[in-house]
């Protein structure tokens, strides 16, 4: 169950970051509220995951899911232009996340 919490926490990190952008500097109340709710869910699930998973494992995986997820959301929803070399580094992030899981 800890891994489920960790994956949900990472997904919600991506969600709250997306809503934060849509809040336009917290000037749009609806997206500001959604940002805060997303943060609460993300941190709650991270806390539940770290109750049994080592912090040295859970935290980098959580941030990695959020980082990779926000790059993908930025490209798909906001039309962010990402350099091909950047995709190499996103791939390295994915390899790092898997590597941390495999070697733990």
Automatic annotation (TrEMBL):
GO cellular component terms attached to this protein's record: plasma membrane
Membrane-related topology note: Multi-pass membrane protein
Main localization (coarse): membrane
Keywords: Cell membrane, Membrane, Transmembrane, Transmembrane helix, Transport
Compartment(s): Cell membrane
InterPro entries attached to this UniProt entry: EmrE-like, Small_drug/metabolite_transptr, Small_multidrug_res
Gene3D superfamilies: 1.10.3730.20
GO function term, MF aspect, one: transmembrane transporter activity
Keyword Nucleotidyltransferase on entry: no
Statement: the UniProt record of this protein carries the keyword Mitochondrion: no
Sequence intervals crossing the membrane: 29-47, 59-79, 85-103
Family, similarity comment: Belongs to the drug/metabolite transporter (DMT) superfamily. Small multidrug resistance (SMR) (TC 2.A.7.1) family.
PANTHER family: GUANIDINIUM EXPORTER (PTHR30561:SF0), SMR FAMILY PROTON-DEPENDENT DRUG EFFLUX TRANSPORTER SUGE (PTHR30561)
Name of the molecule in the record: Multidrug efflux SMR transporter
Organism listed in the record: Paucilactobacillus nenjiangensis
Phylogenetic placement of the source organism: Bacteria, Bacillati, Bacillota, Bacilli, Lactobacillales
